Amino acid sequence: MEKTRNPDNKLTFDYNLTQRGRNLEPILFAVGKWGHIHIEGTSDIEGQIKRMATIKKL
């Protein structure tokens, strides 16, 4: 992970995956999808990933 100051709020940090971390995205996605199906109260990982991909493109 890479830690950088949030440009909009200097009191917070942004955390982003490094290239090595991005290589784990399929695994993280699979674990998140499993959790959504099997653990009550977890959020929809597919929707979150789509939102993150949209934000990264901006």
What does this molecule look like?
With 58 residues, this protein is an alpha+beta fold. It has three helices and two strands; from the N terminus they run ββααα. The chain has helices at residues 19-22, 25-38, 45-57; strands at 2-5, 13-16.
Structure at a glance:
The chain has 58 residues and is of the alpha+beta class. The chain has 3 helices and 2 strands, in the order E-E-H-H-H.
How many E strands? 2
Based on Cα principal axes, name the global outline.
globular
In DSSP terms, counting alpha (H) and pi (I) runs of 4 or more, how many helices? 3
**Which stretches are poorly predicted, pLDDT < 50 over at least 5 residues?**
none
The value of Rg in angstroms is 14 Å
Sequence of secondary-structure elements: EEHHH
Largest sheet: number of strands, sense, barrel closure? 2 strands, antiparallel
Look at the helices and sheets and give the structural class.
alpha+beta
Average pLDDT works out at: 81
Main β-sheet, spatial strand arrangement:
1-2
Span between N and C termini?
20 Å
Approximately how much beta-strand content do the residues carry? 5-15%
Helix content: 40-55%
Topology of this protein?
Blueprint (H helix, E strand, L loop, with lengths): L1 E4 L7 E4 L2 H4 L2 H14 L6 H13 L1
Antiparallel strand pairs: 1-2
Considering the chains and any ligands shown, give keywords for the structure:
58 residues; alpha+beta; 2 strands
